[in-house]
Automatic annotation (TrEMBL):
Protein name, per record: LmbE family N-acetylglucosaminyl deacetylase
Top-rank taxon, per record: Bacteria
Organism lineage string: Bacteria, Bacillati, Actinomycetota, Actinomycetes, Pseudonocardiales
A GO BP entry: glycoside metabolic process
Coiled coil (UniProt feature): none
Source organism (scientific name): Saccharothrix saharensis
Molecular function terms from GO: hydrolase activity, acting on carbon-nitrogen (but not peptide) bonds, in linear amides
Alphabetic keyword roster: Zinc
Signal peptide annotation: none
């Protein structure tokens, strides 16, 4: 019996805000491909350029490369707007500057839905999460409320936005919702494969996009009524 509810899809605009290039491609991009195919508009905002993510490349070379790979990955799933906030990869600091930058993006894009990554200490299965993911995920949740309050970050000179219906958290150990990605799974895999340099430097199961994503999608599908799926924790605002 299915224990995951469908993510609501009666909305038009989404903003995805995560820490690094590749964060969305490890699960959420299959759902994003489904949504853009429905005619929804999705934009990406990355807190960093991922410059500390490739051990074999110094940051000044890795950063521009990973930006190009992220733009290409987004295009595969129908996303043509990708922004980078230029916080330092690996050492993203929690606090008002980060919240301010994300609140500004929310006010500019005026989304119905905000997508982000796992802000909890662990991933499903108990694997430890990393600091950048936790910090950015929590800042996104806080910034949704910041963006709605006209008396917070008044220096932005942007009208407040209180139209976010919910935040969809990808990769959460507390997921209660899912999106059927049976028809867009291949696009999700293709989007992750665009991170060629990043994947080439990895080892282990996460370096192989198709089997890794398929295993996770099959697990989620078993909990959501069959097929392939990806999971989200839905926080209603």
């Amino acid at each position: 019996m299915a224990d995951l509810e469908p993510v609501p899809e009666d909305w038009e605009r989404a903003l995805a805000v995560v820490a690094h290039p590749d964060d969305l491609e490890y699960g959420a991009s299959g759902a994003i491909a489904r949504w853009t195919a429905q005619g929804k508009h999705v934009a990406y905002v990355l807190a960093t350029r991922g410059e500390a993510g490739i051990d074999t490349l110094p940051p000044d070379r890795a950063g521009p490369l990973r930006v190009r790979e992220q733009v290409a990955a987004a295009a595969v799933v129908g996303v043509d707007h990708v922004e980078f906030l230029d916080h330092a990869d690996g050492v993203v600091e929690p606090g008002l500057p980060l919240r301010r930058d994300i609140a500004a993006a929310i006010r500019r894009h005026r989304p119905d839905v905000v997508i982000t990554g796992n802000h909890h200490d662990t991933f499903p299965g108990g694997f430890l999460n990393m600091a950048d993911h936790r910090v950015v995920g929590q800042a996104v949740i806080d910034a949704v409320r910041d963006a709605a309050n006209r008396w917070v970050f008044r220096d932005l000179d942007l009208e407040p936005w209180n139209g976010v219906r919910f935040v969809a958290v990808s990769g959460s150990p507390r997921a209660g919702h899912a999106v059927d990605i049976t028809d867009t799974f291949a696009l999700g895999v293709a989007s992750l494969r665009e991170h060629r340099a990043y994947l080439a430097a990895l080892s282990g199961e996460m370096a192989e996009p198709e089997p890794f994503l398929r295993r996770e999608a099959e697990r989620a599908g078993l909990r959501s009524g069959g097929g392939l799926a990806t999971t989200f924790e839905v926080l209603v605002m």
